[in-house]
């Protein structure tokens, strides 16, 4: 769960980037795709694997498949 993210003006976060809790992104910064960022100010930690997008998609589908429709009266 994300506890706090401070994002400066005109900050761009690309696809499948991981932003750690309590991270501060400075104004006009760009977070590249598949990057793990953390700190105050944010610093690059590591490249995420190329399979990150597929893993996120599978986890999201699994999460939403557990929901059941509500019966209308």
Structural summary, described in words:
The protein has about 70 residues and is an alpha/beta fold. The protein has one domain: Hexapeptide repeat proteins (UDP N-Acetylglucosamine Acyltransferase, domain 1), CATH 2.160.10. The protein contains one helix and seven strands. Strands 3-6-7 form a three-stranded mixed β-sheet, with no helix packed on it. A two-stranded parallel ribbon has the order 1-4. A hairpin with a 4-residue loop joins strand 6 and strand 7. The chain is elongated. The model has no long low-confidence stretch (mean pLDDT about 85). Its main location: cytoplasm. This is Dynactin subunit 5. It holds the Pfam family DCTN5. Keywords: Cytoplasm, Cytoskeleton. One of its GO terms (cellular component) is dynactin complex.
Briefly summarize what is shown.
By secondary structure, the chain is α/β, with parallel strands linked by helices. It is 19% helix and 29% strand. It has a single domain (5-65), classed as UDP N-Acetylglucosamine Acyltransferase, domain 1 (3 Solenoid), CATH 2.160.10.10.
SS-derived structural category = alpha/beta
- Mind telling me the CATH class? Mainly Beta
CATH superfamily: Hexapeptide repeat proteins
Determine the CATH topology.
Answer: UDP N-Acetylglucosamine Acyltransferase, domain 1
Biggest sheet strand order reads 3-6-7
Give the CA-based shape: elongated
Average predicted local confidence, pLDDT: 85
Q: Count of DSSP E strands?
A: 7
How far is the first residue's CA from the last residue's CA?
35 Å
Beta strand %: 25-35%
Uncertain spans? none
Radius of gyration from the CA trace? Answer: 16 Å
The sequence of SSEs as H and E is: EEEEEEEH
Number of domains: 1
Number of helices, where a helix is a run of at least 4 consecutive DSSP H or I residues: 1
What fraction, in percent, of the residue positions are helical? Answer: 10-25%
CATH architecture name: 3 Solenoid
Main sheet: strands, sense, barrel? 3 strands, mixed
Family: Belongs to the dynactin subunits 5/6 family. Dynactin subunit 5 subfamily.
InterPro entries: DCTN5, Trimer_LpxA-like_sf
Protein name: Dynactin subunit 5
Pfam family, one: DCTN5
